[in-house]
Write a structure and sequence with these properties.
7-stranded mixed β-sheet; two-stranded antiparallel ribbon; binds 5-O-phosphono-beta-D-ribofuranosylamine
């Protein structure tokens, strides 16, 4: 059973999708600790309802980004987390986390990377007028929204769409894709090759 530490900042709908997938058996994993960069994030309540330990960090903790990242890395290690899952975490993950969990920090981004990086991926794609956007799950590295891409799903933008209807479809895709990717990790099917490209093995050749 893969042990996951989850980082959030907000509503935690992706966290909920992961909790639900663990509960219904489609994801062979367990969320061992949820850390939020905001103490009042609704996602913390979702975790508590599922009896998952939580830590809500205050703004003051982030006065030193280094100390905050050291604390986060330490707590996840103590909780036995094997992978760190960023689920709407609105801060950078710094060296202390990336070094403690090398190639084991995953992020979800609501656009098709490398397009529309940053905190407003859905809005930026909408404002640009693209006809196709989507969702990307990738390994996190020291640069924002970079790192080897694990999976992407396209989401079309229709004539009758509003930003709200587009947001809804993107979130629905996220909630399906994130647990699926985590299940690939849980079954040992994801690796990074010499070009730093992600390879996904077929089920029979899994380690
Ligand atoms: C998601 O759209 C995710 O892609 C982005 O932040 C949002 C988080 O939503 N990084 P939630 O907190 O999981 O509801």
């Amino acid at each position: 059973m893969l042990k996951l530490g989850v980082l959030i900042s907000g509503s935690g709908t992706n966290l909920q999708a992961i909790i639900d997938a663990c509960a219904n058996g489609t994801l062979d994993a367990e969320v061992v600790l949820v850390i939020s960069s905001k103490p009042d994030a609704y996602g913390l309540q979702r975790a508590q309802q599922a009896n998952i330990p939580t830590i809500g960090l205050t703004r003051e903790v982030y006065n030193s980004q280094l100390a905050a990242d050291q604390l986060i890395a330490e707590r996840f290690a103590q909780a036995g987390a094997e992978y760190i899952v960023m689920a709407g975490y609105m801060r950078m993950v710094g060296a202390p986390i990336l070094e403690a969990f090398p190639d084991k920090v995953i992020n979800i981004h609501p656009a098709l990377l490398p397009a529309f990086v940053g905190a407003h991926g859905i809005q930026d794609a909408w404002d640009y007028g693209v006809k196709v956007t989507g969702v990307t799950v990738h390994f996190a590295n020291a640069a924002y929204d970079e790192g080897p891409i694990i999976a992407q799903r396209a989401v079309e933008i229709y004539e009758h769409d509003s930003i709200e209807s587009l947001e809804q479809r993107i979130h629905a895709v996220e909630h399906e894709l994130y647990p699926q990717v985590l299940q690939l990790l849980a079954t040992g099917r994801i690796s990074i090759d010499e070009h730093r490209h992600v390879r996904i093995s077929n089920p029979n050749s899994a380690a």
